[in-house]
Amino acid sequence: MATMRLSSMLGQRRNGPGRPLHWTDIAAYVYLALGVVLMFGPVLWLVLSSFKTQSALLEFPPSLLPFAQVEVTVSGQPQKLPLFRAKLPDGTVRELAQVRRIGLIAQMVDPADPSQQFRVAIDKREPVRRVALATENYSEPLQRFAFLRFLYNSVFVTVIATLITLLINSMAAYGLAVYQFPGKQAATLAVIGTLMIPVTIILVPVYLVVTELGLTNSLWAVILPGAATPTGVFLLRQYMLTLPKDLIEAARMDKASEWQIYWRIVMPLTLPALAVLAIFSIMWRWNEFLWPLAVLTKTEVYTLQIALNAFQGELQTQWHYLLAMTVVTLIPVALVFVFLQRFITTGIGSTGMK
Amino acid sequence: MSGVSSTIRPERGMATGALARLGQVAVLPVGVALRLLDPPMRWMQRMIGARRMAYVFLLPNFVFFGLFVFLPIGINVVFSVTGGTALFPSQRPYVGGDQFAYLFDCGSYLDPSSCREDHFWRGVANTAKFVVFQVTAMVLLSLVTALVLNMKIRGRGFFRAVYFFPVLLSPVVVALIWKWILQRDGLLNAAITTLGGQKILFFVDPGWAMFWAVFVSVWAHMGFYTLILLAGLQAIPADLYEAAEMDATPRWRVLLRITLPLLWPNMIVVIVLALIKGAQTFDEVFVLTGGGPGTATLMVVQYIYETAFSSQVQNFGLAAAASVVLGVVLFVLTLLQFAAARRKEV
Amino acid sequence: MRAATPVIASFTLSLLAATAFGGPAAAETTTLRMTWYSDGNEGEVMADLLKRFHEQNKDIEIVLDQVPFKAINETLPVQLASGQGPDMARVVDMGGLSRFALDMRPFLKDPGYWETNFGPFLEWMRPAGDTKSIPGFMTQLTVTGPFVNKTLFEQAGVAMPGEKSTWEDWAKAAKQVADKVQAPFPLALDRSGHRFYALAVSQGTQVFGANGEPDVVDGGFKRAAQLVYDWHKSGVMSKELWGSVSGTAYRGANDEFKNAQVVMYLSGSWQISQFAKTVGDAFDWVAVPNPCGLGGCSSMPGGAGLVAFKTTQHPKEVARVMDYLASEPVLAEFYSRSLFVPGHLGLAKKGLDYPTASPEAAAALKVFTASAAQISPIAYRIQGYSNSRIVLNAVISRLGQAVSGETTLEDAYKRITADVAQQIAERNKK
């Protein structure tokens, strides 16, 4: 019965009430359910792990939730003692607090009755644990540096760079989509050719250019080099090509200037594609690491990504901090996702990438 | 600015009112600047004529391209014909084609270990292998996902967003998450041992390492390509499907006869984009596998980066030579895309 | 339009704020920049000391720029070459950066103090042929050496090899223990050329030929490489360190050691503070003297130095800061709070107290300080050689390939020789 009802419910939209599911529908739901686990699961795992203590992170098998060993106060002991579940020689199992461990033997007491002492082999005891969030993974590093300054820098870079990108990319896309002029082919080819060059392989020359411009250690050194994106021009041009030409002709009849046509007619019509580019630009800028690392050396201009990665030393990586700080940088991404996901899907869906 | 949305309403169905408002707020300061720019632009138009305004529109973007892409490429070419360790091109001794000769000094181009600079050729071979697997998997999986997401199912918007989510993560974070899951004592090995299996050291086995490099890269970027294909699917006229349903055509036949042929232009875009991006892969694989084991997942871009930065002798010349070679290869791919794009416009 | 005003206002404000970054600081104080990376708490300790310095010297302010280690190794050299570097930085590749280092002698209060206490280490910071300049001091001297999980030995009922035992003895014992307690890593050696040389020197490698040029692959080197290769074959070493990442990438087993999966871990003194903190009461761990071979029992010295750079506009002020930081009481505090082996001969001789250290940590520091006194001249010479990282990188990259099964050891030997020759030639191109 229940499966019948479920299947008719799921199948409703497609086949009308009561029609049985086609096997492809069932396969589709299985596929989608798997997708949810596979796409969200890893990120959820990262978030859970970031709340584990340094030693809990190293455990195997890893526990799903962050646990920490329970510590109890025992009268007569200056410090809190860790609590274990110990199997005594007579076969009984009791919760005991460990006073100290010498070699393979642990010296334990009953927290309720400290006068009772036990000697337990270390493989005969198990820690008593409770769910506990290691929030110090977050608070310690965040207190240690000027978090707000770095946040401000990152936001500044992201916002300004995205605005510049939207402006100059849309201008170029407009030029390429609307006009016929000598050199158009070459310009289009140059844009697409630029798409081929990953920043990594021209890092040193770009650094030289930025140094010659006197921009090092200024946020503009991060903002400007990536401001003109080939992807953006390409995306917007493709979209603008689908706009009706007579709209522009009509505006010209009305004596609108070319500049007015661009920003009062074409820009508003291109909003969906602009929104997509904005989302991408925000992501690129927020996540940028290698390039800021090269041009920013002064603490006051660090972006979050650089500051948070200071936990990667020569010889050790402080995983508990690194995971926590990764989650911190993910928060804006998650927010963008929650608020903009509707626009992401509809926006890209209609950018006319065809 | 307030007049924009009331006088000219966005006509495209997808541009909802909320989206338009959002875009407005984001672009508002720019909007004010744009209005202020009108008088000088008018003057400019009077001076050079409406048609040549195209150059004015292209100018800012191309100034940026010029300064931060074309000029650096030029400097890279200069680097590639000079040697030594000096940073400024003027201080570097000219060595002609030595760097290229060194790079291409091979017994046989099919066997990286016969080359003097074997790491470069191993990088080339690995990248080629990676791109073949990655693009195949990417295209197939995003096609299947797009088809599924195009079905009339409940929660479609949510599921579309789910598949797009990883696209928003930075490559470093993506790699870090998966490295954390795949390590010896990670989540996956915990699952395997619970099911009674033996722990697998994924990053010690060349085959596994390459598999996970491809997997993670597909995981991270699939959403983007899925959406491109989804856009294509939605552009297919519905009456074609209705006609097929009238004739009681089996679903697989509809797929083969209607859907796939009409989706082909979008498929080309996906294939070419995936190919280009795949060949540029660096940070996610680098953080995930470190290029190992041995050099089994060392990519060309990683080779270039390490030659220029990580070695004690920062060998900008050799790195630049390798990047010029990579650039030429990628340029061939560009022309391919250009040809494909032109064919579509006809 | 009304709605636009606050947005525009905040936009303009943020622009103003941005331009304010570039503005000059207060006129009388000199601001110096120090670029710093951290493995543990040393960044906090340094920040403390600098604050104290500023309280005593109001005219100098030092900004501590904390960066990931990647920046020190990869982008700092480019920044220095382009004249954009900091005034001082904590660096590891002291030889490689020596061409940018500032000779502080004219500005120091007492260069003699520096000569006496940092003498052997100053050579690491000097360009080849220079025997006099004073560019900085050691923030930490590191000594390689093994850590042993004593509890695992006890659980397995195997006796720990004593002092002067050979590498082979240790490998055999560690394997026995690991088999009994099912630990996946009997012997772990950091994937690092520097750590490999701790083994190679004790196997008798000479590194340099008669003409003073590197002759890397000699008998001792081959013995060491063969040992590592065979250990991977027989399961004494797990491929997870040497056989996973590529090139010069570093991999340590510190996390695995903390998790009681490693019986014996050859790493170095820098691990002490985090072991003390993370292992806690979980098991007993000890540092033991370096194992021996045909070439003796030497470990490798290393470390990081705080170096001043030529490009600074304020050499006098830089020297004042350095004089302060290098002075005996200040440096003693720095070493002892960071749990570092002192790179200051006077302090090393006197012995340093580590009041914050746990008993295990204090015992380990003692072992390492003792082995620091027995480092062979060859080991010093490799560390001080200005092209040392070329050698170390070539070695680890090629041996890694052999261990992973991609090439043979013979191939690796040929490639190492060729790599070293090619890179030194490139460096000498003028």
Number of structurally distinct domains of chain C: 2
Rg of chain A, rounded, reads 30 Å
CATH class of the largest domain in chain A: Mainly Alpha
Task: Give the termini distance of chain C in whole angstroms.
Answer: 63 Å
What is the molecular shape of chain A? elongated
Please identify the top-level CATH class of the largest domain in chain C.
Answer: Alpha Beta
Please tell me the CATH architecture of the largest domain in chain A by its name.
Answer: Orthogonal Bundle
CATH T-level topology of the largest domain in chain C: D-Maltodextrin-Binding Protein, domain 2
Helical coverage of chain A, percent range: 55-70%
Structural topology:
The complex is a heterotrimer of chains A (354), B (346) and C (430).
Chain A: H1 2-15, H2 23-49, E1 67-69, E2 71-72, E3 81-87, E4 93-102, E5 105-110, E6 113-121, E7 125-127, E8 129-131, H3 136-144, H4 147-178, H5 184-195, H6 203-212, H7 220-223, H8 230-241, H9 245-253, H10 258-269, H11 271-287, H12 290-295, H13 304-308, H14 319-349
Antiparallel strand pairs in A: 1-8, 2-3, 3-4, 3-7, 4-5, 5-6
Chain B: H1 2-7, H2 17-36, H3 38-48, H4 53-80, H5 98-103, H6 118-149, H7 156-164, H8 171-182, H9 187-194, H10 206-235, H11 238-246, H12 251-279, H13 283-289, H14 300-310, H15 316-345
Helix pairs in contact in B: 4-15, 6-10, 6-12, 6-14, 7-10, 8-13, 10-12, 10-13, 12-15, 14-15
Chain C: H1 4-22, E1 30-36, H2 42-56, E2 60-66, H3 69-81, E3 88-91, H4 111-125, E4 136-149, H5 150-156, H6 167-181, E5 185-189, H7 193-202, H8 219-234, H9 239-242, H10 254-258, E6 262-268, H11 272-279, E7 285-287, E8 301-308, H12 315-326, H13 328-338, H14 345-350, H15 359-372, H16 377-384, H17 388-403, H18 409-428
Parallel strand pairs in C: 1-2, 1-3, 5-6
Antiparallel strand pairs in C: 3-8, 4-6, 4-7, 4-8
Helix pairs in contact in C: 2-13, 5-6, 7-8, 7-17, 11-15, 17-18
